[in-house]
Design a protein that fits this description.
Blueprint: E1 9-13, H1 17-30, E2 37-41, H2 63-72, H3 80-93, H4 105-116, H5 130-137, E3 163-167, H6 172-177, H7 184-196, E4 203-207, E5 214-217, E6 220-223, H8 228-245, E7 249-253, H9 255-262, H10 268-271, E8 284-287, H11 290-295, H12 299-327
Parallel strand pairs: 1-2, 3-4, 3-7, 7-8
Antiparallel strand pairs: 5-6
Helix pairs in contact: 2-4, 3-4, 7-12
């Protein structure tokens, strides 16, 4: 008897770990085997359904697999998603300790991909203070952005900061001065902070990416948005910073920072001002990046966007006050 042909299911995801993870959870829940899946990446403006941000599911996998998968997601190979799901399926259905079998064909390829992806992880000292992290970051070459940048622009603030603000990346002036938010966007942010009753000295201020990415045009350096491999490479620094600070309130400034913290399903203009739980605090939210105010085409647009930024920061300050009262009993 001729076996029935295998029906292939196309699964379209954004080329990010969180998008794959959400799809893989649902496929595991449905019991869909890896050989029946064709993984496709959404590109450009192509529509891609947002991953469901619900319960993680009933399957437990080793923490090490999640760490490897997050790293391998930054690999350029188009086959990485299929490999990750195949290994995940085998871990769940065949051998929970599969990752220890480095002679296994799938595991051998997976480990090789992990090692091939550039990352700041080797430069990040474990259980370090902010000052130790800052010094270590000065020599980081975990991605290619360090080649053209003047210097590493690390976060500013102390472990005692109760609120942390996370932006996208340093700009031209930040790259020159070595401090976050000292250019035009920083001036907008300072104005908004002052109007809601916050001072820089009270805040831990940092960026997802620590080196300036730009396009040289004559004497000017034009901002270029960091891509997924660069964000993934720099992520260990952000994780170490937030682990050291443990802010009571975390505010992401702009879409890049928001998606780096909340995942690719996050939609800034729909979810700004709303508190969500992250691994660092239950009081995590997002708002506009101050540079969005500067990019508005006219004064009316600038005032409208500035009002939204200020409104969200006011919400963050109010939540910070509630957190303080709760801690004080």
């Amino acid at each position: 008897m001729t076996p029935a042909p295998v029906t292939t299911r196309q699964v379209r995801i954004e080329p990010r770990f969180e998008s794959w993870q959400s799809a893989a959870r649902e496929l595991l829940r449905e019991g869909v085997p890896p050989e029946t899946i064709e993984w496709l990446e959404a590109t450009g403006g192509e529509f891609c359904p947002a991953p469901v941000m619900g319960e993680p599911g009933v399957h437990r996998v080793p923490r090490r697999f999640v760490e490897i998968a997050r790293q391998v997601a930054g690999h350029p190979s188009a086959g990485r998603w299929a490999l990750l799901y195949r290994v995940l399926w085998r871990v769940v259905h065949e051998d929970h300790d599969l990752l220890r079998l480095e002679t296994d064909a799938d595991i051998s390829v997976l480990v090789a991909m992990e090692k091939a992806v550039r990352s700041a992880a080797p430069f990040v000292p474990p259980e370090a203070s902010l000052e130790e992290l800052r010094q270590a970051a000065r020599i980081c070459t975990g991605c290619d952005l360090h080649r053209a940048a003047t210097q590493t622009v690390f976060g500013q603030g102390s472990e005692a900061s109760r609120i942390a603000l996370v932006g996208e990346q340093p700009g031209d002036q930040e790259d020159v001065q070595g401090l976050p938010f000292v250019g035009p966007a920083g001036q907008v942010l300072d104005r908004a902070l002052g109007e809601v009753g916050l001072r820089r000295e009270e805040i831990y201020l940092t960026n997802v990416v620590k080196h300036f990415k730009f396009i040289p045009t004559g004497k000017r350096r034009l901002h270029a948005t960091p891509q997924e491999p660069e964000i993934l490479a720099c992520r260990p620094w952000l994780e170490a910073e937030l682990q050291a600070v443990r802010p009571e309130v975390l505010v992401c400034l702009g879409a890049t920072a928001s998606r780096a913290v909340f995942g690719p399903a996050f939609r800034l203009m729909k979810q700004r001002g709303l508190f969500l739980a992250t691994r660092w605090t239950a009081r995590s939210m997002a708002t506009l990046h101050p540079s969005a105010v500067l990019r508005a085409p006219d004064e009316e647009g600038q005032e409208r966007l500035y009002g939204l930024l200020k409104q969200d920061l006011t919400t963050a300050v109010a939540e910070l006050g509630r957190a303080g009262r709760s801690a004080g009993g």
